[in-house]
Amino acid sequence: MTSGSRFGVYLPEDLAKELDECMKSMGITSKSRILQEALRLFIAEYKWKNAKSVVGAIGVLYNHEINHIDDVLTDIQHEFLDIIVSALHVHLDKEKCMLLIVVKGDAERVKSLVDSISSLKGVLLVRPLLLEAK
């Protein structure tokens, strides 16, 4: 066993119940293992914000019925052509669309792109999946 650190974790009853249900459905029996994986994911999701350069994708879920949001999203992407590698638009149903924007470059520019998209009326979810570029 590798060296590590032990500490106690308090979970509210409802969260502990959901965790148990997820672990059972996934066939995972070790809470330590699942918490380690959750922490790795948490760290990966936020570590990019302190990097100088990043690579990855930004997932955007939005309601295309809201005030010309498709046009606004296209205009925003044109402002960030220096970091956008590619984009994929998917129609999910009559109202919702998903946009996957692949980016590479300056982390501050990527943060600005994420902020620009997040502030739009009609955007339901913005999920960056980014890593520090080496």
In terms of DSSP E residues, the strand content is 25-35%
Largest sheet: 4 strands, antiparallel
Mean pLDDT: 92
- What is the N-to-C order of secondary-structure elements (H for helix, E for strand)? HHEHEEHE
What is the correct CATH architecture of the largest domain? 2-Layer Sandwich
Structural class: alpha+beta
Q: Radius of gyration, Cα only, in angstroms?
A: 19 Å
Q: Name the CATH class of the largest domain.
A: Alpha Beta
Task: Say what the CATH topology of the largest domain is.
Answer: Alpha-Beta Plaits
**Morphology:** globular
Q: How many angstroms does the end-to-end distance come to?
A: 30 Å
Number of helical stretches of at least 4 residues? 4
Q: Specify the helix fraction band.
A: 40-55%
Instruction: Give a count of the beta strands, DSSP E runs of length 2 or more.
Output: 4
* Neighbour order of strands in the largest sheet: 2-3-1-4
Low-confidence stretches: none
CATH superfamily of the largest domain: ACT-like. Chain A, domain 2
Q: How many domain modules?
A: 2
